[in-house]
Amino acid sequence: MSVLDLARPEIRTLQPYSSARMEAGGGQIMLNANESAWEPVGQAGAGCNRYPDPQPEPLLQSLASLYGVRREQLFVGRGSDEAIDLLVRAFCRAGQDAIVIQPPTFGMYAVCARIQNAAVIEAPLAEDFSLDVTALLGAITPAVKLVFLCTPNNPSGKSISRAAIEQVAQALAGKAMLVVDEAYIEFSEQPSAIELIGHYEHVAVLRTLSKAWALAGARIGSLIASPEVIALIRRIMPPYPLPLPCVAAAQAALSPPGQASSRAHLAIVREQRMLMHRWLTELPGVREVLPSDANFLAVRFADAGAVYQRLLQAGIVVRDVRRYPKLQDALRITIGTPAENARVLEAIA
Questions:
Q1: Which residues form a coiled coil (predicted)?
Q2: Residue 189's domain spans which residues?
Q3: Which residue of 87, 132, 202, 215 has the smallest Cβ count within 10 Å?
Q4: Could you tell me if 242 and 181 lie in one domain?
């Protein structure tokens, strides 16, 4: 059985849109896309009178080198959100198929599924926010086409072990795609699940430059999967998903100086995460600081609402996660600069 047998048959046979840039490029006079012949005013718009390459080769090569994969295993889009949406559209038939999530978790998996009119099946995390493999596998039905794992988990910060991910991958073979969201993996000591793709064609991994690479505003995310899955996703991608300024920002971040800067900032975040965990635990009104492998801490308070308002009055915005299961008394606090973290502690104390 091919992993593509899990996809919607009409997507497998779809004639994809062929953009002007895909059909021809590299000429000296470009008159095939009805673009403006004049560049816009200002340096920020340099080159933006022309449509960008849908999947720029230099960026694909940089990301392939970063993640240790081949370029044909990569789709690059507008953040991980776009890849999630395209996966749901490619694999889930409206009104018939389903996805499985483990709440509390990132909300876009369910949002994309519901937009597609695919069912959302929940297999909640254990009380300590670890993956309940038995409950997850017990939730699988013939309708399930995608299973999303978020590691480190957002909003708790807990990682899923590589052994548990592989156990799920083995059980889902021939049944469903396993999508591992590693948006925060750079902050963790856990190994990536990317290596599993070579052993399980139904495993896909989501990565992003939004967190550790400081490019949230550029919206550059990657789907890493088998070449067959990537080719399927490219059939339904928008014609020009990557704006030129965003690609340029990504290339700068992935350059040797950019990588050195990211490594330095990662070291600061890890150190500050450890210190903030200790200092927050000592504050009055703090019930628990959850262990975290991400760039944030989920903190339980005796009165989370009052603390949230106190922080707002001090000009500090954190995430109120009390609507999430098992976190009804918690706030999620991103690790900022040492000076920002000190202000958080001062406002809470």
A1: none
A2: 3-19+54-254
A3: 132
A4: yes
